[in-house]
């Protein structure tokens, strides 16, 4: 048999390949709205989101990013861009600034965002420093519970707590429901020493910033119950929802390991490494460099969410 015949016999021919093998890889699925009719109505009324214009608005933001920041390493997926449009009520300019702030924060604070994944924060999660309550509030907001008294400074630096907060916010904000309803951050100062409270004081305040709302409370639970019903609170906070469960949320985060590795554990291209130095809003860089890490976190949260 000839060499040519032998080659044809031992190598797969084009004709032997299935039709699927010859086709190019499929495009990623387009955006599919997961909002209920009730939330679509809420988004229209409160966020100026019009379903019939939604993809047009996303494309407009995508075009702005490509034109004004062509070297920015960022996802341009519909779902990702929507979170910034919703946070700024579909104002293109403000949504773009929020996106830039978000990436500036990530570039300028490597000790927080580098290697940001659940497995790197097992000590913080095991301490019970923060969790997400199993029930939302009457408006549909998820409630993030932060307990500074669980932090033992000799065990790990305070930046690990900040990393755990960002980890939780990033996981929650992936949900369209959260993008519409928002997040409540509940800080429990009961039993916290004055020295430890001084670290957290500038960070936790009752204020609405973007999708975030903060509540601070100590031993007096009356103000807490005025804002959050007892039915969603654990008994530690005078509620009727049983014991505070931290294990369930920890499991949710740990199950998301691959997603965080893909998003936060990849090298940043050199072409946009200057972003964090040049695009931070005025006053943000100075806060990020100050000794009080929680003041920096406060400024970053205000600018990123």
TrEMBL record:
GO terms for molecular function: phosphatidylinositol bisphosphate binding. Residues 117-292 form the CRAL-TRIO domain. Residues 1-29 are annotated as: Disordered. GO terms for cellular component: membrane. It holds the Pfam family CRAL_TRIO_N. CDD domains: SEC14. Residues 8-19 have a biased composition (Polar residues). InterPro entries: CRAL-TRIO_dom, CRAL-TRIO_dom_sf, CRAL/TRIO_N_dom, CRAL/TRIO_N_dom_sf. It comes from the Eukaryota. PROSITE patterns: CRAL_TRIO. This is Alpha tocopherol transfer protein like. The gene is TTPAL.
């Amino acid at each position: 048999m000839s060499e040519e015949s032998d080659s044809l016999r031992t190598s797969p021919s084009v004709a032997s390949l299935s039709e699927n093998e010859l086709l190019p890889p499929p495009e990623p699925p387009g955006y599919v709205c997961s909002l209920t009719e009730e939330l679509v109505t809420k988004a229209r009324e409160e966020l100026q989101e019009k379903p019939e214009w939604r993809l047009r608005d996303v494309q407009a933001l995508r075009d702005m990013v490509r034109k004004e920041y062509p070297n920015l390493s960022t996802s341009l997926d519909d779902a990702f861009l929507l979170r910034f449009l919703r946070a700024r009520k579909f104002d293109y300019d403000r949504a773009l600034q929020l996106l830039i702030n978000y990436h500036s924060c990530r570039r300028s604070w490597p000790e927080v965002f580098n290697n940001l994944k659940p497995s790197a924060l097992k000590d913080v999660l095991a301490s019970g420093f923060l969790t997400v309550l199993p029930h939302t509030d009457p408006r549909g907001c998820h409630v993030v519970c932060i307990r500074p008294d669980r932090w033992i400074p000799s065990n790990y630096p305070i930046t690990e707590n900040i990393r755990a907060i960002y980890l939780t916010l990033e996981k929650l904000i992936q949900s369209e429901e959260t993008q519409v309803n928002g997040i409540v951050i509940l800080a429990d100062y009961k039993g916290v020493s004055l020295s430890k409270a001084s670290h957290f004081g500038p960070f936790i305040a009752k204020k609405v910033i973007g999708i975030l709302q903060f509540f601070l409370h100590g031993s007096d639970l009356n103000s807490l119950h005025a804002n959050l019903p007892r039915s969603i609170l654990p008994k530690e906070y005078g509620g009727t929802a049983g014991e505070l469960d931290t294990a369930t949320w920890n499991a949710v985060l740990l199950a998301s390991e691959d997603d965080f590795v893909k998003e936060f554990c990849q090298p940043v291209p050199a072409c946009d490494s200057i972003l964090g130095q040049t695009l931070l809003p005025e006053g943000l860089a100075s806060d990020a460099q100050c000794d009080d890490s929680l003041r920096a976190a406060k400024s970053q949260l205000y600018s990123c969410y």
